[in-house]
Amino acid sequence: EKILVAHGGNAVNDSATRQATCNQIIQGFIIDRVLGKNARDAGLSVTDEELINREAALLKSVSGRPDAPRTIEDYYRRNPLGEVYAKREFEQGILIEKYISLEKKKMPKVNYSNRASEYINAVIASNECKRVSEKLALEKIWEIKSSLDKAPFCDVAKRFAETAIKVSECPSSKVGGDLGEFGRGRMVKEFEDVAFKLAVGKVSEPVRTKFGYHLILVSNRIGNEGASGQKVHASHILIKAPAMQKVPTKDEAVALFRAEDETRFIQDFVKRQIKQAAISAGEEYKRLLPQ
Predict the structure, then answer these.
(1) Cβ distance 137 to 76 under 8 Å?
(2) C-alpha distances in Å from residue 171, one per residue of 16, 88, 164, 190
(3) pLDDT, tens digit, for every residue of 59-72?
(4) Residues 153, 155, 161, 167: what is their CA dihedral angle, to the nearest 10 degrees?
(5) How far is CA 183 from CA 96, 112, 198, 206, 218, in A?
(6) pLDDT in tens, 247-266
(7) Residues 168, 169, 172, 175: is their CA dihedral positive or negative?
(8) What SS3 class is residue 179?
(9) Contact (CB, 8 A) for 216 and 204
(10) What is d(CA 35, CA 275) in angstroms, rounded to the nearest whole number?
């Protein structure tokens, strides 16, 4: 319960979230303790040099954050379970990583060349199909744009909403494409870059995002352009078009499959370690254990 409160705070009030949080924390606790013990039994330890290097790497990785710790002691002190606990867990993490690295060396050697080539060919074939969908979506969005451009300025908003209800492929079509008010950072960049520059009452040209093609209509602008807290009230019409997938190089495809196999190999290893540990729990703690 002490660990749970320190990690979960007020986010674990409802029973389902609380159980999920318990499962996650205790599963990590079990893995940590079992693998840590087995690593020490295997004669592994963490050297002072390894600890210093890893601490320096940690501080460097968070140095750009506004609340970044200035020293490793500051980092440890911020842990809700205390400085001593934090340092011990940090060292334990290095120890477990060394233990797992040894196990990785036992992975069977696999030639991924054929598998990588098949994957690359599948991506290319998929992209060819997507190009057809892309062309159709682009033609359709331009047709809609052309129709809206013919409407008198005073009728654009009404016509836009009616069209959105009929053809838009976004759930917002039910309310005429209305997205409400939003500030920067709420929408994907390509969308908001246009929305925040678009004149009120004017229908944008087609905007491509990962979802497809959009037409955007801004009905109100709140705050000055570029000012902090500026918002717009906008609607959109979406015609979906699948995004093209990057065709990987042979080396990238091989690395992808090797990483997937490595993940499965280590997961199986961890499961075996836990099973062999034959962990039991008292009745009052069984409700906390991962199912």
Answers:
(1) no
(2) 28, 49, 10, 19
(3) 999 888 888 898 99
(4) -80
(5) 44, 46, 14, 21, 13
(6) 999 999 999 999 999 999 99
(7) positive
(8) strand
(9) yes
(10) 12
